[in-house]
UniProtKB/TrEMBL annotation:
This is MipA/OmpV family protein. The keyword Signal applies. It comes from the Bacteria. One of its GO terms (cellular component) is cell outer membrane. Residues 1-20 form the signal peptide. Belongs to the MipA/OmpV family. InterPro entries: MipA (IPR010583). It comes from Methylobacterium planeticum. Keywords: Cell outer membrane, Membrane, Signal. It is found in: Cell outer membrane.
Length: 287
């Protein structure tokens, strides 16, 4: 029996009608179905971040101003800066500071230092009859100026509380030389104090001289030292860095004639040796 061959035009019309019907059916089903929920889009909002640097500092320093005996002194530190800003240069002999104004060339803010005291129990033989000169805290202000990126000038003016009530200050200049992961700095230092500071730590009253019987009475007019400090920092990573440093100051002026800086009681040559470790991390800014 011979197969019946349908015309091609008929097949095309039939297929087209079927496809149209199928499309109509799918459209009807889609109209009855709920719309798919929109895919959520989250925008990343970068909040303000701080970089907090915690510092542990350990140094060998004169037991008290003018002493020829040394003691270990450890103290912490903290620094805060906004993420994305470079870390400011500092030296281990800077006072504990906080910037209230910070630009490319200038920094200004409060600062504070600790001054160890002199006590009879430290040296009963030589300090017999002398009054104790208690430790002091020296709050004040600092200013920094960068004439060029590799040179920093810093000055501090402070006032003592508790141990002494005089005005003291320091002026320093630092040459800064970075080299890969290392940073080397070196520069001169000048420290000064008024008569109230000098008399507290270097003066000897007639009664004290009589009781001690080894030194003469002395009234200094002021206090001054000249010297310098050098430091070398190595940065391990964004989180860790360490610094070693050596400093020297020579007591000059009228204070250098004090019997308390002579051999057996003290020395005009004041050294400091130390190391510090820095650890940095980020946190959301608190304000």
């Amino acid at each position: 029996m011979a197969a019946t061959r349908l015309p091609v035009s008929l097949i095309a019309r039939t297929a087209g009608s079927a496809l149209a019907a199928l499309s109509t059916l799918e459209a009807a089903r889609a109209a009855d179905m709920p719309l798919a929920p929109d895919v959520p889009v989250f925008e990343k909002l970068d909040g303000k971040l701080w970089i907090v640097t915690l510092t542990g500092n350990l140094q060998a320093t004169p037991r008290s101003p003018g002493s020829d005996e040394y003691t270990a002194l450890g103290y912490p530190g903290v620094g805060i800066r906004e993420a994305g800003t470079p870390q400011r240069f500092s030296t281990p002999d800077d006072g504990v500071s906080f910037s209230v104004y910070d630009s490319e060339r200038f920094r200004l803010g409060p600062t504070a230092r600790y001054v160890p005291g002199r006590y009879f129990a430290d040296d009963r033989r030589h300090l017999f009859g002398l009054r104790d000169a208690a430790f002091a805290v020296e709050p004040g202000v600092f200013v920094e100026y960068y004439p060029v990126a590799w040179l920093r000038a810093r000055g501090e003016l402070r006032h003592g509380i508790f141990g002494h009530h005089g005005f003291v200050g320091s002026v320093g200049l630092d040459l800064i030389q970075p080299l890969d992961r290392f940073q080397f700095s070196i520069g001169p230092r000048f420290n000064f104090g008024d008569e109230a500071f000098a008399r507290r730590y270097f003066g000897v009253t007639p009664i004290e001289a009589l009781a001690n019987d080894r030194i003469s009475a002395f009234t200094p007019g002021s206090y001054a030292t000249v010297g310098g400090l050098t430091a070398l920092t190595y940065t391990f990573s964004e989180q860790w860095a360490t610094t070693g440093y050596v400093g020297y100051n020579r007591i000059v002026g009228s204070t250098a004639d004090s019997p308390l800086v002579r051999r057996g009681f003290g020395s005009p040559n004041q050294y400091v040796f130390g190391a510090k470790v820095d650890y940095s991390f980020t946190m959301p800014a608190l304000f």
